[in-house]
Amino acid sequence: MTDPGGPPRARERVVLATRRGARVVRTRVEVQEQTEVGEVMVRALVRAQLGLAVRIAVLVAAVLGLIPLLVMVLPALTTASVFGVRLPWLVLGAAVYPMLYGAGWLYRRLAEHTEQEFVDLADD
């Protein structure tokens, strides 16, 4: 006990367990149980992938739209031929497909990167 007439004793703090930071956010559980936080995270992922798809689609449409415009501006391209095939037909029939394949490859690569970032965030 303390002596009523003596100087007061210093307070001691008793710690039963060390605290390692703020509350751990379990984002994977949030996503799986479809809580408000999980829904916001999934909506953000869908929004990011939609934005990516729209940007790639606009890029492809712009490149494909430039082909007829280029033929209109340079009429000499309509008479040029390669291996007996006129250049506009060759471009539209053969050159467009590798470009579309490349756009699909680029979208898949960027979408997988976005999904991996989402998984990394959910694992934290």
TrEMBL record:
The chain crosses the membrane at residues 52-77, 89-107. Keywords: Membrane, Transmembrane, Transmembrane helix. It comes from the Bacteria. This is Integral membrane protein.
